[in-house]
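note to self: dont lose this again. the chain is below, predicted strucutre after it. 577 aa total, dont forget to put it in the shared folder this time
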Amino acid sequence: MSKNECPYRSLFIDNRAIMLLINPETFEIVDSNLSACSFYGYSYDEMLKLKIIDINILAEEQVVKEMNLAKVERRNHFFFKHELSNGQIRDVAVYSNPITFEGKKLLSSLIWDITDSKSFRNLPESEEMALEKVVAEEAIHRLNFYLENAMLRRTKQLEETNSQLIVTNAALKKEIAERKTAEDSLASMALQNEKLYEKVCKELAQRKKMEVELRSQKELLEAVIENIPDPFAIYDKDGNLINMNAAGRKLYPLQEQIEKTSSAHSAFIYFDLEGNEILPENLPACRAYRGEVVRNEVIVIKRPEREQITEVNATPIYDKDNNLVSMASYHRDITEIVLNQREIKKHLELQMQIKIDQEMARLDKLSLVGAVAAGIGHEIRNPMTTVRGYLQLLGSKAEFSNYNSQFALMIDELDRANTIITEFLSLAKDRVVELKVQSLKEIVENIFPLIQADGLVSDKYIYIELKEVAEIPLDRKEIHQLILNLVLNGSQAMSPGGTLKIRTFMDEDEIVLSVEDDGTGIEPEVLGKIGTPFFTTKENGTGLGLAVCYSIAARHNAKIDIETGSTGTTFFVRFKK
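---
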């Protein structure tokens, strides 16, 4: 049916009511009359590009629900809000009826603009609107009736045409059967031969094209293999070399030798990294022929000019019937990597040995100083105590009152010497420690008020950052001395206004005490001497404070690490669980 036919134009196109034909499955606007184009503000072509959900502002699922009701004829009267091309929203009443056209079910919809009505859902119809509704509904029924009749007429025409074709086809078949002669047979054979010739030519062209593509792919694959930076080779099932890239030819330069020996791996002697010779049957290539996939195996090749260390991968290659047809071998030269690793290992071992020797020397000094301290410390302290007592006695006598300032200076120096002797005795290796399972965090918390008060006196800000740590055997007095010495050392390294931080935390299985200052750091030439008895950079220092710390750490099976830089120094005391 043409849309230019008069009945369709009078019933739909030219109808002054707003009318749309809608596909309820896809929501596409199949057709639109002129009144609809004018109302919505779109051209006819633009209208046919829209879907009903493009102009209906309801949610898509709600529109689908309403259209399904109309499609099964359970409801034909709706109220919607439609959006015009200029963005204006209009309230509309929609009457929809299902129609069938060319086997498709469509919805024929009449739309009334009821925006200006106050209550459009219960709006009493005016005579004009009622008449317009009746006329529109009549137009829909007529249109539906016309479309159904047109469909019936077209179906009847198709049936008649089909019958005529059947009759004509039967007549032609009869005529061909009657006219079939030897000449026709020859012509048919010639035609068949021509088709066969065309088929053969086509197959030959396809085969030629496939050959070109295969040749191109082969050349590409060969170029990729050739340019692989590491040796790559393929051998047949009998061990004969099929192909080897440039890197492989560089590793095995004598091509004749390779061909004569049937396999490249028999041209040299091979060893593992420990220096044990690898027998031919245990080489990666031979094992691959036995079905093993060898990955990243390191072997040493003894060549006349040099020793080469390679990482070998070898894999067997099977056909579709799981028969071994070849073997691929890939080598990677790791000589420089292994030699570098060996050099690094030697360097690290040397550094470790130097560090061990330094630590042993320092421990020997501590041991020697501790032995001396244990032997003569008490013998020195006893006469000093006697001298101090007589100085106090003389200072109390009136006849010596003029010398009280000298007596006080002498007593202070004796006290200072006594302090040095006390630290001296702390270095004794066989000093008795009273170990008790307790928390390092609690020890720091208990001593912190004293540390904080000393910091305030010297205009240093000291704070703690303590995390829960495992309890371990500790000597509380010695840990007090360790903390006080580290804090004093850090505080003396800072200028007034500096900040010092004390932390406890777990580092894997270690309990860590750290003391961090923001001083200028420790010079490299000084760092190696830290902890050595009597070594000090301070003008009035004894050089025993950090030595005592190292001695206490040793008695607790702990170690001291130092991190230093231009922004400060951190001492880490690491205790084992």
